[in-house]
Amino acid sequence: MLSEGYTPRRYVPGEYASRHIRITATRLADGRRFFYMDDDPAYVSGAKTRRLDDPRPLTDRFGPRLDAEGREVPFQPPQMRRDPLTGDWIPMATARMNRPITAGPGATAKGNPLAARKPGDPYQDGEIPDTDYDVVVFENRFPSMMQVPGADVQEGHVDGNPLWPVREANGRCEVVCFDPNEQGLPADLPVSRLRTVVEAWAFRTAEISAMDGIEQIFPFENHGQEIGVSLAHPHGQIYSYPFIAPRMEQELRQCRAYRERTGGNLLHDILQGELEAGERVVFRNRTWVAYVPAAARWPMEVHVAPVRDGILTLDQLDDDERWGLAQMYSTLLKRGNAFFDRGDGRGMDLPYIAAWHQAPVRDGRREDYRLNLQFFSFRRAVDKIKYLAGSESGMAAWVSDTTPERIAARFRQLGPVDIEDEETA
């Protein structure tokens, strides 16, 4: 259900969310949008309420700033420049150099900005107004892309040279906090909490797709210090691009060419091919299938796809599919952590990226696509990682260190393929 004071543009909660998840909207002190997504019955019923005011003395995020010499200068949004060799847009967000880091040897923050507020604690620059929460979503304080209200986005050229188009990076960046436990792991969350996370992805996909200028919505999760995570907290992000990202452009091009050549949907036929082959399917339930793709490039890679055809984006999933996805994601994270054996049977906290590939918002090729999750890790052994060296980084020409069949065989050792009745909470 939606609390009073927020009118959705495209999001329509299903039966489960209407009864068991309450979305409460507010704004942080600098004007950013913030949403509590509560699954605790006391908050869903309204018996308890969340704190909505942000007590921090933050200035308007679009207001003027002081430069290095103390002079007031107008706000400058992130910009992006187009690479003439590849056609790729490259956002450039210098404000991210100042973002807090709590993970790794380069940590700069003594407190966790994604944790619930702790009254009396010396650190009071957290993003969550309340002292507890279930799931929250809010605009990133240090975004790679952002939309400035009322701005007229104009394309110019670096140094006045038409070789290098430049314009505002007028996308949107949001953070999704999965749980208030600062030391928790996403793999340890109950399926019911992951169901709320799935609802958050669907909610934001629906709402952001109604915003002008957004071309692709990309929910993802970076996990682990080795991946480059700067905040040690169970959370993910949603990048909403004002362009089609290069990987998605490649996939759309292949999907369109396949349809023109065969009349079929490439992602549907890939899934059917994996089901027919069988040996690379690692687990499944009534609504989803997880498999290692036949041309996997990462030393540990799994794709997850819905069984039902016609699903382009996360907000198009029905209640059964959202529950099925929560179960699949829980299973995937647990088995991912068990994939590499240290010899003690305990596995490891796997560094990974979980990347949601959704159909673009407006591109005419969106009907050629199909929703899928691409999950991967660059760890290739307990004590080794795959470095993206000359061939991969220099030429984007991948060399795999294993085979998809070996990856799948290891996953199939870790649990049953059919997980419909498996306990994952």
From TrEMBL:
Q: Which domain of life is it from?
A: Bacteria
Which residue stretches belong to region Disordered?
47-86, 102-128
Renumbered to this chain, the Basic and acidic residues biased-composition regions fall at: 50-72
InterPro entries per the record?
Answer: GalP_UDPtransf1 (IPR001937), GalP_Utransf_C (IPR005850), GalP_Utransf_N (IPR005849), HIT-like_sf (IPR036265)
* Necessary cofactors: Zn(2+)
Q: Which SUPFAM superfamilies does the UniProt record give?
A: HIT-like
What is the designated name of this protein? Galactose-1-phosphate uridylyltransferase
Entry EC no(s) = 2.7.7.12
Which UniProt keywords are present, listed alphabetically? Answer: Carbohydrate metabolism, Galactose metabolism, Metal-binding, Nucleotidyltransferase, Transferase, Zinc
Class in the EC hierarchy, top level: transferase
Domain spans labelled Galactose-1-phosphate uridyl transferase N-terminal:
78-243
Origin species, per record, is: Bifidobacterium favimelis
Q: What family is reported?
A: Belongs to the galactose-1-phosphate uridylyltransferase type 1 family.
Domain Galactose-1-phosphate uridyl transferase C-terminal intervals? 252-365
Q: What is the lineage of its organism?
A: Bacteria, Bacillati, Actinomycetota, Actinomycetes, Bifidobacteriales
Q: Molecular function terms in GO for this entry?
A: UDP-glucose:hexose-1-phosphate uridylyltransferase activity
